[in-house]
Amino acid sequence: MKSSYQIGSIIGIPIKIHITFLLILPLFSLVFAINPHPFGFADVSPASKSYALALVTTILLFVCVLLHELGHSYVAKSFGVEINNITLLLFGGVASMEEIPREPSQEFKMALAGPLVSLIIGFGLLGSNIAASIIVPAYSNTSTYLMFNILGTINIILALFNLLPAFPMDGGRLLRAWFAKRMSYVKATQYAASFGKMFALIMGIVGLFWNLWLILIAFFVYIGASEEAKSTTMKVSLERYSVEDIMSTDVISVFPEMTLEELLKLMFERKHLGYPVMKGNSLKGIVTFTDIRNVLPHERYATLVADVMTKDVISLPANANAADAFNLMTTNNIGRVLVIDNGIVSGILSRTDLMRAMMLLNEEY
Fold first, then answer.
1. Domain check: are 269 and 189 in the same one?
2. CA-CA distances (angstroms) from residue 53 to 7, 140, 150, 294?
3. In a domain, 278, yes or no
4. What pLDDT, on a 0 to 100 scale, did the predictor assign at position 365?
5. pTM, to two decimals
6. Other C-beta atoms within 10 Å of 81: how many?
7. What would the pLDDT profile of 302-348 be if each residue is shown by its tens digit?
8. For the chain, what is the largest distance between any 2 Cα atoms, rounded to a whole number of angstroms?
9. CA 111 from centroid of its chain's CA atoms
10. What is the CA radius of gyration of the chain?
11. Pick from 184, 213, 272, 330: CA 20 to 30 A from residue 292's CA?
């Protein structure tokens, strides 16, 4: 089942909605509908109008989140970074990029763009409310005034929150850009991540005595900072290798006519969880343990590899950079890629191969 659905594209960037967004939309609408002025529409009559205004406000809020991410994406594209998509999620939006710019000044501008967009929207809405109220005093009693006031305030809070110096928020990237001007990119990431984790611990302690939501936020900040440090260290380290240096050349293939029960036995024997599917010299697809797991045990005797294999094979040439392979696996959420040169499968590269290469590295940053 797909978890995200594309609803359109802006400046060539696919815009997607994650399934969790469909859960948060009615929840946010309810929060706005039951809260009184100045944070909601509970004082508006009739009740149907208050719920309608709450729904419109929620939709506009996520439009503002989308604009925030488009700010990042527009600047990143100007530096030649490919944007895969922007996805609206449970806790906001995220722009999926092939690579964060390594140049400190570029990352600084890209990270700052999102909060700047939110600040412009926030102060713009609040400023328009003030101006309209001066011209037409009765305007301050309208639903539009209240809606703009809510959206303006939330956008300013969103910008300030994202400027906190902790990954995965924009402030953490601004801090890394500042460090990167003074040290290596990996060390800058590790310093910024350490600062972010320390910030998360403080936030968690404060949350114990003030607001339990801060503990949840602190948890995500801590995990985000840790993952950013690991991912960056791995990417930079792997840039010294080609796929050919790390891949497994002993490629075992399977036939499309093999049953899943036979394939499962092969996996136990060979200790590999993914295999190219070949018919003669022709590559038909790739099959993994996940494909087997999606079939009920009593059905595996009659289910063929051809019935479950992935036909759209993701591959790389042997001379590709190992860091590109890591990015490809991460972006597509897969555990291995086939190595194909001139139409011939010459190897297979798995996450395990990449992790093994990392363990053998002895360079200190």
1. no
2. 23, 16, 11, 43
3. yes
4. 45
5. 0.75
6. 18
7. 999 999 998 888 888 989 988 888 888 877 778 888 898 887 888 88
8. 80
9. 15
10. 25
11. 330
Q: Which residues of the chain have pLDDT under 50?
A: 363-365
Contacts of 103 (CB under 8 A, 6+ apart): 79
Residue 365 within a domain? no
Rounded distance between C-alpha atoms, residue 164 and residue 169, angstroms: 7
* Sheet of 13-18, strand order: 4-10, 13-18, 83-89, 92-97
What tokens appear for 6 in the block? Answer: 């594309």
Query: Using one digit for the tens of pLDDT, what is the confidence trace for 81-136?
Result: 888 888 877 556 677 776 777 789 999 999 999 999 999 999 999 999 999 999 99
Q: Do residues 213 and 127 both lie within one domain? A: no
Closest CA to 321 of 244, 229, 231, 230: 244
* Pick from 181, 178, 175, 231: nearest CA to 198: 175
Residue 47, number of CB atoms within 10 A of its CB: 11
**C-alpha span between 79 and 64 (Å, rounded):** 23
Is the separation of the CB atoms in 199 and 190 below 8 Å?
A: no
Query: Residue 250: which residues within 8 A CB-CB, separation 6 or more?
Result: none
By annotation, the residues acting in catalysis are 69
Render 113-133 in DSSP notation, one character per residue: HHHHHHHHHHHHHHHHHHHHH
Task: Find residue 345's DSSP bridge partners.
Answer: 340
Structure tokens at 134: 């001066």
